[in-house]
Amino acid sequence: MGWVSIAASAAFVLLVLAIVVLRKKGQEYQEQRFSAVDFAANIALAVYLLVLAYAVVLCKDAITAAEADSAAESETLTELYWTLAPIPEAAPLKVQIRQYTNQSITLDWPMMSNDTLSPLPGRTLDELRAGLHRLRPAEPAHENLRQEALNRAADLSHARALRADDAATRLEDIFMISMALSGALVIALPWTLGIRPTFPTVVSDAIRVTVVVVGVVFVQLSSHPYSGFNAVEPTAFEVAVQQFDRIDRQLAPPQS
Asked: How far is CA 72 from CA 115, 163, 166, 232, in A?
């Protein structure tokens, strides 16, 4: 968040410098024709608002998709655990499911803000799938459950790949460049008129700077699904761990 404070401070300093310079060298307002500059400033504002709105929509869509993919992966984990729960020989595999889930929370999530996943949960998932291939249930009726578990493990691997794609998703640089350029024009073009500032114009300048800075900061903090103030949290995986405990309690043999 340090760069946010730097950007806000730089914008404030720029505003103060412009007011000071125009206060000393600016001309008194007269009925002059500034239609060209006014038109250019309005165009810059329209471009800025258009890019801002589109960027916000893209950021929201990326976060929504990441939340949905995370929830789907969590649901696949729960269903896989349900599938293996009745098979006594699958107890070590259930431990690996818990291990993968916990590793996703503690290892993957801190790294996903940097566009990548930890390799350790991926290895745990590979070991889980290999264990399912080697699993030989004592009860013939449990073979169908093993086949179903293999399918769910494949779905889990696909879900992990989707989460990796989500973690690597960022807003394209062209949006930030367009916002920065159009925002700079929105701020600076009125100053090119060289009018000595008055209280209303100072208020107008402050509003323009605030709107541009807040918009750029908001989009930057929303540009990645797993970082910023609206980052996707591992809540769905934490719920899955609770579901594992509930499944074990429900399928535990009755005590005499």
From this structure: 20, 10, 13, 14
